[in-house]
Amino acid sequence: MSFLSSLIAAVVPMILYLIFIWRLDKYEREPLGKVLKHFLWGAVGAIFFGILFSSVLNLATNVFISNEGILSLISTVLIAPFVEELVKASFLFRTFRKNYFDNITDGLVYGGAIGLGFGMTENLFYFMMYNETFSQWIYVVIIRSIFSAVMHAIATATVGAFLAKTKFSLTPTKKRLPIIGILLAMIFHATWNFSLSFEFTSIVGILFMVFLIIGFLLIFNLSLNNENKLIQAELLGEERIFIDEANQSFNKKYIFDKIKKKSVRKEYMNFVTKLAFRKFQAKNSSGIQKEKYLKDIELYRSKIIYLLQNHLS
Q1: Which of 159, 194, 228, 283 could covalently link to 181 via disulfide, CB atoms 3.0 to 4.6 Å apart?
Q2: How many helices and strands, by DSSP H and E, does the chain display?
Q3: Where in the chain does DSSP place strands (E)?
Q4: Domain boundaries in the chain?
Q5: For residues 194 and 205, what is the distance between their CA atoms, to the nearest angstrom?
Q6: pTM for the structure as a whole
């Protein structure tokens, strides 16, 4: 198949997956530019360093082992998961310190974006490599688009979720969480790679990925439900600004009935959601970070008051 066909087959599914994951985050959707930045890191930066460090480790392994079969298995099941999950996750260790990294859902979105970017470029390499016949090419496109690239997304999303737990946990054991996240990512990666190393294990690998995908979607949904509960809980102390006085609870419909302009409604929900998250984050942080969140709380309160004063009918 031509380079153009392989390029389209590599890019289109990953972009569709990326949009799907981005749109799943319905309460505080991340800026698309930031999501694309993580996607590009996976597609370019993580690929470059992954190839570089894997090559070094593979050369070192060749010094001690001469059997080609064993070398191939070590490279596929040990070196690739170890190196690739570390380089993919490295960008998240920078991101999770930012104020816009608010919750577990953000970790899932940003981590998933990196994994999809990595999967896209890796898929392009494979699609160009295995294209001797059309049937062979189609088989590789299907397996890698549905499972391999998605594995990369879920693995790095797992690291992102654990980093989010680390950021907003005050327990003494929180420093272990990133290590657990990376180890799980490596295990997911190694399990999938091992399943593809032998014909008799391939069906096990596909079943493993089906359960992994279902698990990812369930965790994403659970995270969204927890966010909804968090928003409701944190806004209870804001009665004077935007709750339904009759029911004494946050009521989006109550406010939307009074705000007719769609753009203002969207801006209002953005401020409200950020206020709720900042209140939660301030409770679960300390020092300079806590001070930043407290300043944000006052900022969003003032923005909400100004908006309601000028746009309530």
Answers
A1: 159
A2: 14, 2
A3: 243-244, 249-250
A4: 3-197, 232-311
A5: 8
A6: 0.85
